[in-house]
């Protein structure tokens, strides 16, 4: 299975990274719909798409407004947007308000079920995360591989979601703060690098990929992440970059 990191930045796009969007082209699954959504067309391999939203903050949903131009109309009509019912209602009412976006796209909004079936006998489960306004994490399992996606939350060893991601082959996790700024992390609902590494180790995942990187130039390249530092805590770690492809 190939995972494509279409967008690996947080908050706003910069010259290096667009905002959150991951894709599993083989099965037509997209996780989050940030500003990198326009790249979906480069990897489209199915005649329908299922887009799963973690929450409704703009850096995770703005790409939904691109789809009228990105997808062929026959695919667009078979595209489903999944998420928490309240968040989907907010997207419909506000992002696609006539004053902001006068053309109603033909895709469907589908509230999440407890378990969603995936092609190839896989299953997708979601779990709550701590974040202002609320957010969701996702775990995707097949008989021979697994993937977890956790963003927009404050990583901590005692978080309930640690058990939800236990043993996954690949964990894609945000690391917005490259230092140990716990106060800022808790205030904004984001994660510090060391805490993410410790969560990955506690959950015994196979590989950790860092995303939702701080876009502020003052943070430095790759958000100031010192990869060698985090690899001392969890060796199999990489910093995600836009258009990176991972086989798992």
What topology emerges from the helices and strands here?
Layout: E1 2-7, E2 21-24, E3 29-31, E4 49-52, H1 58-61, H2 67-70, H3 73-76, E5 79-83, H4 85-95, E6 108-111, E7 115-118, E8 122-129, E9 135-141, E10 146-150, H5 161-164, E11 170-174, H6 182-188, H7 193-203, E12 207-211, H8 227-233, E13 237-239, E14 244-247
Parallel strand pairs: 3-4, 4-5, 5-6, 10-11, 11-12, 12-13
Antiparallel strand pairs: 1-2, 1-14, 2-3, 7-8, 8-9, 9-10
Helix pairs in contact: 7-8
Can you offer a commentary on this structure?
The structure is a single chain. This protein has 248 residues and is of the alpha/beta class. Helix content is 21%, strand content 27%. Helix 7 (193-203) packs parallel to helix 8 (227-233). It starts with a strand and ends with a strand.
Features of this protein?
single chain; seven-stranded mixed beta sheet; alpha/beta; Metallo-beta-lactamase, Chain A; 8 helices; 14 strands; 248 residues
